[in-house]
């Protein structure tokens, strides 16, 4: 028997990603986002939702571009910091001593020290209520050499991304492999 | 130095959720989805993307409703099965011996045996390309008593949701806590 918990944004897993953008003065900024996910395979797209009140919102509107930088679990304090302060009055890259790298594909910066990044141009903007969803076409994925496997693809156990848990608002790591998709279900 | 991997849907974590719906004959169906995420806090909304070719696509269009059932890691084979076969010619609930429960809030069924479920009515439909994104308003979250903590909220380490890794297409569990959001970053 299930207990009703009400109308809440309560589901797992949700991601912990840093959305990178340039403000009107060209200063690099980033903000932590968990209301996000892949939304299309072709063209490859990722969606991220921002409140209008955020400083990044105006930057994405103006620049029509953003990056997503995926922090590793040992960077959890840095990742959280990007959600604690606003870029209106804080230069977050300077405060964290992280390095903003200008994308050569879109008008937005990514975090050099985070192992996996996506460079995106805005394709759609959807007003939903408190949040506005930005759908970005993924123009490139870039990864540190150290997180690649023998086939040259990222290994999630080397990237070690952070899982956000809504409700109790805790961060978690990724655990052990549970098997291959499109395969383990054949035993049913 | 980062290596360019091309325009791919390659990022972590992505979820492993079962989208539940009724077909034209009223038969319960479900499909595995990873291109999904929370997209608004108020109204609480979740987005899930389906290819038009899926059998579920027509059901969501017709019923304007869906559920999301979150499988636990020991249910990974069942979760994968829902992505291996089509509801056009297979009654997946019967094949898995899982129980479809009719939502009393929306015109869609959820999986009784999965620990956490969301009941959603379709608010927006966005054509993106290969995938169509359905934004659903979350009308209720329901959870098994066994996965609730002392405060009556779900505990992710009791739900034990499945993380999907695009690229190598492997499933993973959730690991240890990395600390509190909106808190650990204050040390920066």
Structure characterization notes:
Two copies of one chain form a homodimer. Chain A is mainly beta. Chain A is 14% helix and 45% strand. Chain A contains four helices and 13 strands. In chain A, the strands form three sheets. The first copy, chain A, has a seven-stranded antiparallel sheet with strand order 4-3-7-10-11-6-5. In chain A, a hairpin with a 2-residue loop joins strand 5 (36-41) and strand 6 (44-51). The longest helix of chain A has 9 residues, at 55-63. The two termini of chain A are 25 Å apart. Chains A and B meet through strand 1, strand 2, strand 5, strand 6 and helix 2 of A and strand 1, strand 2, strand 5, strand 6 and helix 2 of B. Strand 11 (131-144) of chain A pairs antiparallel with strand 1 (2-6) of chain B, so a sheet runs across the interface.
């Amino acid at each position: 028997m299930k207990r009703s918990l009400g109308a809440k944004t309560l589901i797992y897993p949700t991601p912990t990603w840093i959305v990178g953008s340039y403000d009107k003065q060209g200063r690099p900024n980033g903000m932590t986002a968990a209301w996000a996910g892949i939304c299309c395979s072709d063209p490859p797209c990722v969606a991220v939702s921002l409140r209008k009140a955020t400083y990044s919102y105006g930057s994405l509107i103006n620049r029509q571009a953003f990056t997503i930088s995926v922090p590793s679990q040992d960077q959890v304090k840095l990742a959280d910091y990007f959600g604690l302060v606003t870029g209106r009055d804080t230069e977050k890259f300077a405060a964290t001593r992280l390095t903003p790298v200008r994308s050569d594909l879109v008008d937005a910066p990514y975090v050099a020290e985070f192992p996996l990044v996506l460079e995106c141009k805005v394709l759609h903007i959807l007003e939903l209520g408190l949040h506005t969803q930005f759908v970005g076409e993924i123009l490139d994925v870039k990864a540190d050499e150290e997180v690649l496997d023998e086939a040259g693809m990222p290994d999630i156990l080397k990237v070690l991304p952070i899982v956000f848990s809504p409700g109790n608002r805790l961060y978690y790591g990724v655990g052990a492999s549970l098997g291959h998709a499109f395969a383990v279900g054949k035993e049913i």
